[in-house]
Automatic annotation (TrEMBL):
PROSITE patterns: CADHERIN_1, CADHERIN_2. GO terms for molecular function: calcium ion binding. It is a single-pass membrane protein. It comes from Amphiprion ocellaris (Clown anemonefish). It is found in: Membrane. Residues 1-21 form the signal peptide. Keywords: Calcium, Cell adhesion, Membrane, Receptor, Repeat, Signal, Transmembrane, Transmembrane helix. CDD domains: Cadherin_repeat. GO terms for biological process: anatomical structure morphogenesis; homophilic cell adhesion via plasma membrane adhesion molecules. GO terms for cellular component: plasma membrane. InterPro entries: Cadherin-like_dom, Cadherin-like_sf, Cadherin_CS. Residues 44-137, 138-249, 250-356, 362-475, 476-579, 591-695 form the Cadherin domain. This is Photoreceptor cadherin. Its main location: membrane.
Amino acid sequence: MKKEKKTHALLFLLLLHFTLGQSDYAPYFYDNGPSSTNGNMALFSISEDTPIGTLIYILNGTDPEGDPIRYGLTFEKGFKEYFRVEPKSGNVTLIQELDREKQDEISVLVSITDGRNKVVETVRVFITDANDEPPEFQNLPFIIDVPEDTSPGTSIYRVQAVDKDMGSGGSVSYYLQTSPLAKFTIDGHSGILRVKPGETLDYETTPTHFVTVVAKDGGGKYKGKHQVMTSTATITINVIDAQDMPPSFVGTPYFGYIYEVSVPGSEIFTVYAKDGDQGNPNPMHYSIMDGSDGVFDINSTSGCITLTTHPSLLKNELYEIKVKASEVGPNNQLLDYDVTTVTVRVVDLNNHPPTFYGENGPQSKFEVTMYEHPPAGEILRGFKITVNDSDQGANAKFKLRLVGPSRVLRVVPQTVLNEAQVTIIVEDTSGIDYEKGPTLSFKLLAVEIDTPERFSATADIVINLLDTNDNIPTFTSEYYITRVPENSPGGSSVVSVTANDPDSGPWGEVKYTIYGSGSDLFAIHPMSGLISTQPWTSLDAEVRSKYNFYVKAEDSEGKYSLAEVFVTVLDMNDHSPIFDDKLLEKTMIIGTPVKVEAVDEDAESPNNVIEYSIMTADPDNAFDINANTGEIQLKPYIKSMEIVQNITKQKDCKWSLVVQARDRGSPSFSTTAVVNIDITEAEGCPRQENLQPCTCPHQIFPHMTFTLRQGQHANTRIHESDAPTCQFICETSAVLRPHVSEQQMLNVTEAGTGCFTQDNMGSLRKGYYKSTGTHHYFIVNEFVVICGQISGAIRLCPNVAF
């Protein structure tokens, strides 16, 4: 029985172990709290100024069974995706720009899976503020109407700006960008704009003020730095005119006439007065105070004076009428007033033309002297002109007009009855310019309007202008470019600059100065503008070839302009080529050139370009020289020490030649050097006598067997020999090219080396070898082998079988 119970317990334990082994638990995230950047992103916060591409969080979890896990991150349908997760590492990267002011919270679905079980959690990510928003003014534009009698310190407006940021970055303060003479001030916290204490407004002086207000936030962090943001707006303040100026009559003195044909009710004259407060003028009320003798009446609204009786009943030929013009207040009360006199004459028929009068009687020419460019609207008070027609009524009505330069001046009034004081007003100030002409001439015409006779009068108006310093000196060019040969003597002329000032007298006199880097080597004549080198200066193109500096033209009152001068020092051929030494020792390996080199210190071509030539040589006709590079090499027929020794009849060979280096300047300079050259032959290629042709398949060279493969690689021997001949090793890849014609080998520009010669056509026969210095060519039957470089000097033995 006990044995059976033990068996049942054992079976139970085995079943429990099997059941546990088959369990599969879901993975889960670590919850490390909102301040962590490692976990499930729950309540994670990120600043809105975080750059795109930043690693902002690491999703982190585990699987109870230890299975590999992968992470996921999604957003609700229709919402912008701000983050991306790397499934294996859990690295979360920002992929969209954040803006807290548009969205301060993002809902994210994060997931973790072990391949069989997937856990999804919804978490909220909070966007924290950065100071990225400037204050925004409300209720733009700011246009304010303020009465001119507003008391100092009075509040006139409240400016308001809103900053969408939070904290100190969302607080706003205000200040004005104004001069010390500004008439307004603003409270930095409330934005209330006031008339500055101690200041008053004056419509007649400044009817409109423009004030710039700045709204500044309290600053805050943005992309790791403290940032303060501002905005500006313009406040337009219109000053409303107040009634603080009396009225005044316009066009005084007034003259009126009664004609023989006049009847009761005839218009004699119309007076006109206007309120001195032009912004908000009061209407006028006209009345006669004295002098009418009961024969005149006046329209209280229009100011028109009329006759109340027949002219034949008049007792006087001249009447002096006192007329009063009063402002009419809001309740029709009469306020400030002005008084003038209207002189009325009784005249006869139309038997008088209009006549111009000066201070001393009739006058046909009026002349005045004044400064140029008076402001537009200014009255030319130098003219004292009265025009009169002694007739009565319509016979004395005429028009005035000016004939001359168009729209420069205008005459007031344009229509006259009997008599008027002529006023000439500036209309176009640019036309009154001394530089255009020192004198302006006009014709002043008075022509009757309604008479059959159309009597008229003419007066000459002459304006003599006085000059002002209204122009600055102006150069004929913004810059001057010149060239000067080097080694020019001190004091040599470089270039002449010219500036013109059309003003007269001392204002038109121009003085020249120079300044700037390098200007100390030059001098300028203060009156003529001639620039020359300093007496002690000698310009050298090899030291400095270009200069630029400024010239200044200034009038007597300090008005000036600038121009820039560019000077190029022309290189002259003043240096000869120079060798390192007059005697040069060189060693030449047959087939390899040696090089001589000279230096010319001139700055430019062709003065520093050198050509080389052989003046003399011993032995003669043994050397060639490259005229451009100075490379000296043996004549093509000298290919071995045997030939050299046959020429010199000596075992040791040292030949000598004189090389000339000549520049290409004009005149040309040259120098020579003696070059002693020790002729020798490279080691490693023993001479072979009575050699027999080899039995290799291609019958190329004696004792040489070439093993050639398509695409031969670098460092592969391209021939082997049983006898002690040269070992040729390609330093760069050898290329085997089949079926290359001999004509393609003509691109090889240097003479062949080794034991071979060219035929009369200049092409290469099969079995030839040729070198360009950088590439080596072998022709083997129909194949060409090209090597980039062959180690050691190349020597081919003299007995060759083809």
